[in-house]
Design a protein that fits this description.
- 17% of the residues lie in helices and 13% in strands.
- The chain is globular.
- The protein has 567 residues and is α/β, with parallel strands linked by helices.
- Strand 12 (312-313) and strand 13 form a beta hairpin.
- An eight-stranded mixed β-sheet has the order 16-11-17-1-18-19-4-20, with helices on both faces.
Length: 567
């Protein structure tokens, strides 16, 4: 059963806005200071926000799809470069952690080695790297590390015009407290299948890419926006509705030339600014996201995030107070507002974190507006209260399990991944489902492959020659330079290729493109990277719809990542 706050939750009191038509989009340079009508003077009003009108369940249809995939589940984890998790795949040291032995026919990747010997991977990137330190293997006992620098500018500087040799100087963070490890050169280091065992086992049995890229440079918020829209332009900042001077134009260090290239909490969220306890500027996005496109065709979808259900409320709105500890005992809030991209848009926000009107309405437009607690995904998967799995689902783990260094780690992440994927593979939806596992940014971890800049930017305060030497090809905004660094991407499905590594060029916005192509007849979002993104379903890609599907579940151990059955 989905979590519901123990307090008496008066939905009518928590819903401060007049019911109306679809939410209004904020116009750049428009009357952003105007507030929406409010049904309660005790609640703040959000500029240009109108509560969504409920769409009757009878209006939703089972859509035709371009492929046999009827459900996609995007598991969007945090802050990992490809080399950091897969740099020596499929060779593991087997000196600690979970033993990993690759299948004989396992393909190599474009990794840190030039060849794999009986003593392990070797090559100049491991023994004479152009950076200040050589990459070193991190043991299973070293799962907790410092969080590296991963800003828009430091990441460009680390790549040093494509020479990929300045990570230590620009993105390394070698300051941390025990039990985390952060020796000099930590930014270069990597895990193997003895620690990230589940991901390596999924790669053995399904498909992954070694040529998938972060769409743009920068941290979590741009990555989150790119996985739902492929577009970080159309950004502005407002003072929060609960501030002494509410809903006024503001400045944010995360927004430059109308583009979001840093982290800032979303405006349409009362859990922003530390549960509305401060008055920092908040981010707003205009334009469309994939939720808008799906809504226009009455196709079910949802964003499910750990800690989204409030633990309490006050006169301003929701309080997201749930916390958990990681394997090292460090505590963090479950819910991170700036990891939730739909809260930046008036059209897809749920400012007060209202639950669905009933579990049977998960995936449909009602007071929850397609935004849910992660527990609601379990309800949908299991059919609790008449719930059904939406066609499109995005999953974001609670912070302690999302893989973000500094407060999470690959072992806590593994627990979340395996429990979630096991439950999907054991559900009735598995035969026509695709699970996509990918990441929001690289965290600044070293990756040796230089990017192709497909969309340049010429902001003297933000861009190095790597970006400024290339033209803007999407829209007119600066500060959307990409691609930036390789990120892991795995597709887990009965229709995945088996034990396969694709070198097709893809990026975070390729997720958007697959949804558009499969459910929306190839509809595109204006100025989005979707139009120039590689397809997950291209020849030699991650799917094979010409072969019989294999829907035999692969069940892993959530603690060790080892195979329990299947495979």
């Amino acid at each position: 059963m989905g979590y519901r706050p123990a307090i008496a939750w008066n939905k009518r009191r928590l819903r401060p806005y007049l019911a109306g038509a679809a939410a209004l989009a904020l116009a750049v340079g428009g009357a952003i200071g105007a507030t929406a009508a409010s049904a309660s003077s005790a609640q703040p009003g959000f500029a240009a926000y109108t509560a969504p009108a409920t769409v009757p369940a009878s209006d939703y249809v089972v859509p035709n799809t371009a492929t046999p995939i009827k459900h996609i589940v995007v598991i969007f984890d945090e802050n990992v470069s490809f080399d950091h998790y897969f740099g020596t795949y499929p060779s593991a040291a087997n000196t600690d952690g979970t033993t990993f032995t690759a299948k004989e026919d396992t393909p190599k990747v474009d990794g840190l080695y030039s060849r794999i010997t009986k003593n392990g991977p070797v090559g100049p990137l491991l023994s004479s790297n152009p950076n200040k330190y050589n990459p070193q293997r991190l043991a299973h006992s070293e799962a907790l590390t410092s969080d590296q620098g991963h800003g828009y500018v430091p990441e460009q500087k680390a790549e040093d015009g494509g020479k990929m040799d300045a990570f230590v100087q620009n993105t390394e963070s070698d300051s941390c407290s025990a039990p985390a490890v952060c020796p000099p050169g930590i930014v270069m280091d990597y895990y193997d299948g003895n620690t990230v065992s589940a991901l390596w086992n999924y790669a053995q049995n399904y498909s992954m890419s070694d040529n998938n890229w972060d769409t743009t440079f920068g941290p979590s918020t741009p990555g989150a926006l790119n996985v739902i829209s492929g577009n970080t332009a159309g950004s502005s900042a407002l003072t929060p509705p609960w501030s002494p001077n509410p809903n006024q134009p503001a400045t944010s260090g995360a927004i430059h030339d109308g583009s979001m290239n840093g982290d800032v909490d979303p405006y349409f969220d009362t859990c922003s600014d530390g549960n509305h306890s401060t008055n920092g500027a908040l981010g707003v996005q205009t334009g469309q996201n994939i939720g808008d496109l799906l809504n226009s065709k009455n196709i079910t979808w949802g964003w499910f995030q750990g800690g989204f259900a409030p633990t309490s409320t006050d006169s301003t709105g929701a309080i997201c107070g749930a916390k958990h500890t990681n394997i090292g005992g460090g505590s963090s809030a479950d819910y991170s507002p700036h990891h939730n991209p739909f809260e930046y848009y008036a059209s897809t926000a749920n400012p007060n974190h209202l639950p669905p009107s009933s579990l049977s309405e998960i995936g449909m437009t009602d007071q929850a507006n397609h935004e849910y607690d992660l527990s609601d995904f379990s309800d949908a998967l299991n059919g609790t209260g008449g719930a059904t799995l939406p066609a499109v689902s995005y999953l974001k783990a609670a912070e302690y399990q999302d893989g973000h260094p500094g407060y999470s780690d690959p072992l806590d992440e593994q627990t979340f991944l395996v429990n979630t994927i096991n439950s999907i593979e054991q559900s009735k939806y598995w035969p026509n489902t695709a699970i996509v596992v990918t990441y929001d940014d690289s965290d600044g971890w070293y990756d040796h492959v230089a990017p192709s800049i497909v969309n340049g930017s010429n902001d003297p305060a933000q861009d190095t020659a790597l970006c400024s030497s290339q033209p803007i090809t999407l829209g007119t905004n600066n500060d959307r330079c990409g691609f930036s660094q390789r990120l892991p991407l795995l597709v887990i499905s009965p229709y995945s290729r088996h034990n396969y590594v694709s070198d097709n060029l893809t990026n975070t916005a390729s997720v958007v493109k697959f949804i558009e192509d499969n459910w929306l007849s190839g509809e595109r979002i204006a100025d989005s990277y979707d139009a120039i993104s590689g397809s997950l379903n291209a020849p030699n890609g991650l799917f094979n719809f010409n072969a019989p599907p294999n829907d035999n579940p692969l069940i892993l151990d959530p603690t060790t990542g080892a195979v329990v059955s299947g495979g």
